[in-house]
């Protein structure tokens, strides 16, 4: 059964974050808050954990469209080809924030994603998520947790999330109520930005 760890966004406890990071380092799966909906994530370097997430989502790992949650833009060069000045300025203006940017991947992508030409990058404006990634030392691979309810697309109450996911994951972080609108997804891998999904992030940045 998963651990249920309360962390306050205005002052994330170092010790509580360290417990979450230890689980990630040991190959565990973590549900954590972002600036949009709650996400399900694992250490980007752990193949077994990546396979567990793909299995839960019912997709083949190499075909899965997971996002990489980064601490800041300095993580970009790890997995993304060099971007032009206009793209970088746009990223700097929008992030941290409720956006997922699709960018051209480079040769350093983890072996599970080698066949992918693009990668989704997220830097959420949420101190808990950013602190987890900072302490871990590398990005986490993430996907939104959806609700089967036809009315509510995303569960926002961490206690209900724990009830539903406690036997599938290793930690559920209670960071308060989440949002029920996903991130705005913008594809920057071509010549012009393409809006894939309009979500919480305003399109005025374009």
Automatic annotation (TrEMBL):
Signal sequence segment: none
GO molecular function, one term: double-stranded RNA binding
Membrane-spanning parts: none
The organism's place on the tree of life at top rank: Bacteria
Ranges for domain YrdC-like: 14-201
Name of the featured protein: Translation factor SUA5
């Amino acid at each position: 059964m998963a651990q249920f760890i309360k962390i306050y966004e205005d002052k994330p406890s170092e010790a509580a974050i360290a417990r979450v990071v230890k689980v990630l380092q040991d190959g565990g799966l973590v549900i954590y808050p972002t600036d949009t909906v709650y996400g399900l994530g694992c250490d980007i370097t752990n193949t077994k954990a990546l396979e567990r997430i793909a299995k839960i989502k019912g997709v083949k790992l190499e075909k899965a469209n997971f996002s990489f949650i980064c601490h800041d833009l300095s993580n970009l060069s790890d997995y993304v080809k060099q971007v032009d000045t206009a793209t970088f300025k746009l990223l700097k203006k929008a992030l941290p924030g409720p956006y997922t940017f699709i960018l051209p991947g480079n040769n350093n992508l983890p072996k599970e994603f080698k066949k992918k030409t693009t990668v989704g990058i997220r830097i959420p404006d949420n101190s808990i998520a950013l602190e987890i990634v900072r302490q871990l030392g590398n990005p986490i691979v993430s996907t939104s947790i959806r609700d089967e309810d036809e009315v509510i697309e995303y569960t926002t109450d961490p206690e209900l999330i724990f009830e539903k996911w406690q036997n599938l994951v290793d930690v559920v972080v209670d960071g308060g109520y989440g949002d029920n609108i996903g991130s705005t997804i913008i594809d920057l891998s071509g010549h012009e930005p393409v809006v894939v999904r309009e979500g919480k992030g305003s399109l005025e940045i374009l």
